[in-house]
Structures are given as C-alpha cells and as structure tokens.
Amino acid sequence: MDVLPPTALERAFRSGLKLGHLRILAALAKVGRVSRVAELFNVTQPAISKQLGELEMLLGMPVVARSGRRVVLTPTGEILARHGRQVLYNLDAARRELEDLREGLAGTLRIGAVATTMPTLVAEGVARLRQRAPAVTISLMEATTDTLFPLVREGELDVVVSRTRMGRTADRQDMLEERLLGRDPLVIACSGQHPLAGRKSLRWADLAACSWVLPPEGSAIHDGLMRLFERHALRAGPGAITANSITVLPRLLADGQLVGLMPRAYAQEYVHRQTLAILPLAFSRTAQEVRALWRREHETPALRLLLQSLAEAVGANGA
User: Fold this and answer.
1) CA neighbours closer than 13 Å in the CB half-sphere of residue 242
2) How far apart are CA 240 and CA 253, in angstroms?
3) Residues sharing a CB contact under 8 Å with residue 99, sequence separation 6 or more, in sequence order
4) Could you tell me the pLDDT band of residue 124, with boundaries at 50, 70 and 90?
5) Record's GO cellular component, any one (predicted)?
6) Which of these, 139, 206, 243, 254, has the minimum number of CB atoms within 10 Å of its CB?
7) How many Å apart are CA 265 and CA 204, to the nearest integer?
8) How many CB atoms lie within 10 A of CB 265?
9) Is 157 exposed, middle or buried (0-12, 13-18, 19+ CB in 10 A)?
C-alpha cells in the first residue's frame, strides 16, 4: 500500500513546531502585546515577531492578527495557545516531580487560599508540613475564589484552599481534584460589650439595626451573606466596612456596634480573651466546609503531604 506523503501541517507538528513557539503564544494570549512578550522573555520585539512569522510559515495559517494597538490570536493561534499551555504545564510538572525524586521530598508548592482560611488553617497546615519536609519551598497567595480557581486551573497555583465547591463541568472534572479537608464554621462575632453579646438566643431581626463588616465582593461568602440579608430583610447598615483581611476584624469589631463573619477557629482566641463574643445564629452549612482543589496530574508527594497537614490543622481546631 502506498503511503501518502505528510501534509505541511503534519510536517510542522513532526519536526518544525518548537516549545518556544508554544511559550510565545501562551504568553501572547495572556498579555496581548508583542513588546510585553519580548520583555517577559528578555529578547527584542523583532525576535518575537520572527518566531511568530516562522510559526505561520510552518502551519500555512496566520496565528495572530492586529486589533488596534494590541495583537489578538486567530482561531488557529487560540487552539495552539490552549493546548500549548497544557503541554508546558505538563513539562513543568514533570520537571518538578523529577526534582522531588532527585532531592527527596523537596521542590516547590504554590498555595492559594481565601482570607478566612489563610491565617489559621493554612498557616498551621504549612507549619506542620515544614516539620515533616523542611526542604519544600512554599509560596502563599491570598485572594478570593474568583481569582484563585482560574489560577489553579491554568497551573499557576498547585492547590487552592477555600470554602467553595468548584463548579463541575465535564472538562474541569477531567482536570481537577477536590477534597473536603474538614469543617470550620463561620460565626457572627461582635464586641464583648455589644448590646447583643451574651444573649442565649437571637432572631435575625435582632440584627436589623446593626452595621456590618462585610467580606469582599467576588467572594462566595459575600454572596452568601447577601442572600441571607435578602431572606431576612436585613441590610449592611450605615457605616458598614468592607474588609479583605480577617486579621483586621478583631480590632474593628472590638471598638463598637459592628458585627461581622469570622472563622470559628480564629474567633475563639478572642472569645477566650473576652474581647469578642459569638452570637447564637448559624450562617451557612456550606461555609463550614474547608476544601482543597488541585490539578489531578500534579499530585506530587509534597502535595499529598500538604493535604494531610491541612486536614490535621482543620481537625486540631475542633472543626
């Protein structure tokens, strides 16, 4: 049987397409300017343009097009950039696993976490990990879930710790793994001198005159609190404060009439000091859950040990 000669596209994938081409397209999809890509790779702008031209000649199709001052990917470029990101991520994961194998339990873990888990459960989990694997290099990032979830999906974070279930679509199920680490309820806290402090029972209507310290917009907890406000005809009240960090909450709440949401593990320390009080109202059963999310193909020994350490930290806080 005669074998048909390879097409130009087949030849491009067999011998012409380079990792450098994929890196450039992935970077261009992210920053949108050839000049910015050149800065990222520490080369000249003509060098990047030459690589793009070489790629287009290999494929016989354009991969970029001008849109004003920016460069946009064509459908061909978008396909290559999407699959290229996966190829580059897999290569990076392989490199890091080989480093783990060569150096023992080492390498790097990039951890993202929401504000209500970072200073307590994540900090304690990392401390436990450090006792077991001191050679692991750790990077921590605090943000809301709308920022963190895309980063773990794109491979820029190794794991995210949050209180939110990941939305399940078919493509994400193939890529991501999720685990319940334990429970750390969110509680409604106020100053120990607040008029509602010490009450054995409360109704939501009792909070109608209260001003709140609110979680940041874009967080799942903010959305849940807004739904609760709507259900019970509440509002944030005059003088409300929005805070992205729970470390500022004890000071804000201790001074006056404000109420706010805090993780129970974090609030208990201030309750013991009689600085804060926890009001007898339940927030949300879903918000009790602390979850980890990571890419399935990057479950390294260091990551598994981190997950174990985080689960122990949640358990140690009485969750």
Assistant:
1) 8
2) 11
3) 106, 107
4) very high
5) cytosol
6) 139
7) 23
8) 23
9) buried
Mean pLDDT of the chain: 84
Given this model, what pLDDT does residue 286 score? Answer: 62
Sequence length of the chain is 319
- CATH entry, 186-285, from 3.40.190.10, 3.10.20.600, 2.60.120.10, 3.60.40.10: 3.40.190.10
pLDDT value at 161 more than 60: yes
% of the chain surpassing 90 pLDDT: 18
Per-residue tokens: 15: 């011998």
Q: With 80 as the cut, is the pLDDT of residue 234 above it?
A: yes
Task: Please state the separation of Cα 3 from the chain's center in Å.
Answer: 50
Which residues are registered as beta bridge partners of 137? 108
DSSP code at position 6 = P
**Per-residue pLDDT band at 302 (split at 50, 70, 90):** confident
Q: Which two tokens stand for residue 150?
A: 């895309």
Give the list of residues 6+ apart from residue 204 with CB closer than 8 angstroms, or none: 228, 232, 234, 281
- The reported pTM is 0.63
pLDDT at 5: 46
- The fold for domain 104-183+289-318 equals D-Maltodextrin-Binding Protein; domain 2 (3.40.190)
115, amino acid identity: A
Q: Where, residue-wise, is CATH 3.40.190.10 in the chain?
A: 104-183+289-318, 186-285
* Residue 4: predicted pLDDT: 35
CATH topology of domain 8-81: Arc Repressor Mutant, subunit A (1.10.10)
Strand partners, 183: 289
Q: What is the pLDDT confidence band of residue 85, given thresholds at 50, 70 and 90?
A: confident
